[in-house]
Every structure is written in C-alpha cells, then in structure tokens.
C-alpha cells in the first residue's frame, strides 16, 4: 500500500477579509515552513481565493473553495463554477459540508453532480459525510454514511474514486465543543474504508484519505491523528487563529 500523505484542512466558512487572509497565510508559512510529510489546505471565502493563492509561496500548501456549482456556466445567480475556481488557482473544493446539506438544502443528488463536476474541471473533491445526533442515538450512523457515500460516488470510475478525499464530520460535533472520541472516529473511518472497498476494491480503499472534522482542537489532535484510519483533519473554528492551527498542523506524527 502506498503511504497516505496526511492532509490538514482549514475551512474558514464566512470569516476573514482579504487582508486577514494574506496575513494569516504569510504568518503560518513563516512559523511552520514548507510541508513535505503532510499537506496543508486552506479554504478561505471566495473573495479571498486569489489573494490566498498569491500568498502561498511554500511547498505543501493547497488552496480550496468551500463549494461550487456543477454547471460550467449559466443563469445561476450567486453561484461559482469549476472553471472559475481553476482560474483563481484552486486545487480542491469542499463538497457536501453539513452546513450546505442542512442549512442550504443540498441533496445527495446535487452533491453527486458536484463530485462528478470536480473531476471534470480538474479539482480534487473533499466529500463530507456525517450523521446528526438523532441518527447516532438511533444507531444509524453507518447506515446514514453508507447511503451518503453510495449516492455521491455513483457514476465515478474506479480511478476517480481512489482520488477522492472523504471527510467524516459528525454533525453533532461541529461547533458544539463536543468531539467524537478517537475510538468513535476510528470506528467510523474504518467503516468508510470498508464500504469503499465493497463498492470498488481494497486497493482503492487503501489509497483513500479520510479526514475527521468536528471540534478539532490543539489538545485532541495528536490522539485523533494516532488512529490508523484517520489521515487528516477538517478544521473549522480552531483554524481561524494561527497559533491553534499551527499546533494542529504540527501534530505529533505517528507511523501507521
């Protein structure tokens, strides 16, 4: 099996101006330096994408958008397309974040279209999946996530499926201060890998990078990243300050 390179991703949501974005990235790079054994991905607001790309001057830093529309162009007021993101220098795009699903009504069908479009337009997709509290308490976590996965990857080739980054984000742990224990997160990550193996094969599943997202903080990052099937993190609130995100990026590396 090829070694999976860790990915530490910052999702800034609706935070930071252009100036704040540039200052953050310049400071982070100065304090962390180039990243060779892990990758750092930053997803600023659309307005700061161009400035963020220009500020990224060191190895190992990737630029992501927080969402996009599956069509190349058209009468979709307020939307942004894959070619527009590529033109701004984006490497990746986050798809199916729980806030997009639950606040803005994105369906599994819409997310499937976006996933296919990401590959069409040359963007690495970070596919978010996860359960709400009621589903976890009912013992339906793996069922819900399995359905989300199956619908999202429908129509993708074996090669494309092996390139996806999946982010498991228990909805009940996002911005609540609650975090899945490392054991709970590992259980779901392993189940995701096994589900992809059943849909495609073990080789595809072993290449797959699976991130954990849900109230990630400097004080729980090492324990999370020590789990064998956790290949990185999707960080929200703790990614807004250089000091906390720097500590997360510099988690204590454990051979897996």
TrEMBL record:
Name-wise, this protein is Triosephosphate isomerase
Give the NCBIfam families listed for this entry: tim
The yes or no answer to whether the keyword Isomerase is present is yes
Binding of substrate, residues: 11-13, 175, 215, 236-237
> Could you tell me the Gene Ontology terms of the biological process aspect for this record?
gluconeogenesis; glyceraldehyde-3-phosphate biosynthetic process; glycerol catabolic process; glycolytic process
The record's listing under Pfam families reads: TIM
Kindly give the PROSITE patterns that the UniProt entry links to this protein.
TIM_1, TIM_2
Instruction: Quote the subunit structure annotation.
Output: Homodimer.
A molecular function (GO) held by this record is: triose-phosphate isomerase activity
């Amino acid at each position: 099996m090829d070694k999976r390179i860790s990915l530490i991703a910052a999702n800034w949501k609706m935070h930071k101006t252009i100036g704040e974005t540039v200052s953050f990235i310049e400071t982070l790079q100065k304090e962390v330096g180039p990243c060779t054994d892990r990758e750092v991905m930053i997803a600023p607001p659309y307005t700061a994408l161009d400035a963020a790309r220009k500020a990224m001057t060191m190895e190992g830093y990737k630029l992501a958008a927080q969402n996009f529309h599956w069509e190349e162009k058209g009468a979709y007021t307020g939307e942004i397309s894959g070619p527009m993101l590529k033109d701004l220098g984006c490497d990746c795009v986050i798809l199916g974040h729980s806030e997009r699903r639950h606040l803005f009504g994105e369906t599994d069908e819409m997310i499937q279209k976006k996933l296919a479009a990401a590959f069409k337009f040359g963007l690495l997709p970070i596919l978010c999946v996860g359960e709400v509290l009621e589903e976890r308490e009912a013992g339906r976590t793996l069922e819900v996530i399995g359905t989300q996965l199956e619908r999202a990857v429908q129509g993708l080739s074996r090669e494309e499926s092996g390139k996806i980054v999946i982010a498991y984000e228990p909805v009940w742990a996002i911005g609540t201060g609650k975090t899945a224990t490392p054991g709970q997160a590992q259980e779901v990550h392993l189940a995701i890998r096994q589900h992809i193996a059943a849909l495609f094969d073990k080789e595809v599943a072993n290449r797959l990078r699976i991130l954990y997202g849900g109230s990630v903080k400097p004080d729980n990052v090492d324990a999370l990243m020590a789990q064998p099937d956790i290949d990185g993190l999707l960080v929200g609130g703790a990614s807004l300050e250089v000091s906390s995100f720097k500590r997360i990026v510099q988690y204590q590396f454990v051979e897996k």
